[in-house]
Design a protein that fits this description.
Layout (H helix, E strand, L loop, with lengths): L1 E4 L6 E4 L22 H9 L6 E5 L3 E2 L2 E2 L5 H7 L4 E4 L3 H4 L6 H5 L1 H5 L6 H14 L16 H13 L5 E4 L12
Parallel strand pairs: 6-7
Antiparallel strand pairs: 1-2, 1-3, 4-5
Helix pairs in contact: 6-7
Length: about 180
């Protein structure tokens, strides 16, 4: 994968010939200094590069499908369902106007993955418990949580659909040391 950014007319190569292959059940860690392209690589996989970025060459395959060949509606169907993302900055990725229940259930709502309101709530409660929060947290807003708790909400949102691929962009950096 090669990714370039071009904000002032001159392209800058941000990711240069990155090759990764993950088999089912494998964990791959990409380590590098700040600005080395780790987050850009993650955003490329999700089809979420900012407008100034573009994949110059390469392919991104999931189950034999080249994600770069898919249009935005097709990518939306994969995000959440097949690919979950835990973003680096929990406050930036949580809608401050929505309660935790609705933030975590967003993928369930988009992909219609429940048959009743009770089932939707139970799936959210199960995820909250999995990440060390309680069901009482479901009716609060993101600003009412610590940074570590917000990151756990982001983790719950990424996992609620049980995706095949989870991308974690420094997912534990905001967590409390005791829970990392």
């Amino acid at each position: 994968l090669t990714v370039e950014f071009s904000s002032s007319g001159t392209p800058v190569r941000v990711v240069n010939k990155l090759t990764l292959e993950a088999k089912k059940g494998e964990i791959i860690a990409v380590v590098g200094e700040s600005g080395s392209g780790k987050s850009v690589s993650a955003l490329s996989i999700l089809g979420l590069l900012p407008n100034v970025g573009r994949v110059k060459e390469g392919c991104i395959e999931l189950d034999g499908v080249d994600l770069l060949a898919l249009d935005e509606p097709a990518m939306r169907k994969l995000r959440g369902r097949k690919i979950g993302m835990i973003f680096q900055d929990p406050m930036a990725c949580l809608n401050p106007r929505r309660k935790v229940m609705d933030i975590i259930a967003e993928g369930l709502d988009i992909h219609h993955e429940y048959s009743s309101q009770a089932e939707r709530e139970q799936k959210v409660y199960d995820m909250l418990e999995l990440v060390g929060l309680s069901k009482e947290h479901a009716n609060r807003y993101p600003h009412q949580f610590s940074g570590g708790q917000r990151q756990r909400i982001g983790i719950a949102r990424a996992l609620v659909m049980r995706p095949e691929l989870v991308i974690a962009d420094e997912a534990i950096s905001a967590l409390d040391v005791s829970i990392q």
